Amino acid sequence: MTATSLECVLPDADATARLGAALAATQPAQAVVLLHGDLGAGKSTLARAWLRALGVEGAIRSPTYTLVEHYPLPAGGKGLHLDLYRIGDARELDFLGLDDAGATLWLVEWPERGRGALPPADLEVRLGVEGDGRRAVLMPLSVSGEAWLARLAGELRDLPVWGPEEVAPGPG
Ligand SMILES: Nc1ncnc2c1ncn2[C@@H]1O[C@H](COP(=O)(O)OP(=O)(O)OP(=O)(O)O)[C@@H](O)[C@H]1O
Ligand SMILES: [Mg+2]
Known about the structure:
Strands 3-4-5-2-6-7-1-8 form an 8-stranded mixed β-sheet. The two termini are about 20 Å apart. By secondary structure, it is of the alpha/beta class. About 25% of the residues lie in helices and about 25% in strands. Adenosine-5'-triphosphate (ATP) binds near residues 16, 43, 44 and 133.
C-alpha cells in the first residue's frame, strides 16, 4: 500500500481533543484504530473526545484497570476503548471475554501488547511529546484508512497539518 501519512501539531490538550473530534467526524462506519505513544502522550484524551463527538454521554473513563470499556453509540453500533498497558501477554485478551460483537469502532491504547489478538487495523495514530504540546503522526493501515486520512486533512483546517493533500507528486 502506498501509505501516505498525515502529521499535525497539537499545542495543547484542546488541540488533541479537536483531532479526536475530527477523526470521529470523518471515520468510516467500521474502524479499528491503534493509538501509539508513551505514558501521558494524550491517547486517552484523544479517545475521550472521539467518543464524546460520537454522542457518548456520561463518564468516559480511561480503561487503565478495566482494560476495556464499552460504549453503545447513538448512531448505532458500539465503541470499544482498550488500554492494554497492563496485560502481560496478548493471549490474556482471549481470557478477558471481550464482548466485541457488534463493535464498529476500536480505539486501542498500547496496541503493541495485544499483537495477534486484535482485528486488522485501519489507522495508526502516533502521539509524541513536542515542547509543551504534542505531535501526531497518522498512518493508514488499510484502503479504508487511506481515504479516511484524505477526508481528515480537510477537517483539520485550524490545526497545523502536513497531510496527504500536500505531498508533492513524485517525478513523472
Ligand atoms: N496536545 C497536548 N498538549 C499538552 N498536553 C496534552 C496534550 N494532549 C493531552 N495532554 C495532556 O496530557 C496528559 C496525559 O494525557 P492522557 O491521559 O490522554 O495520556 P495517555 O497517552 O492516555 O497516557 P497513558 O499511556 O498513561 O494512558 C493529560 O493531562 C492531558 O490533558
Ligand atoms: Mg491512556
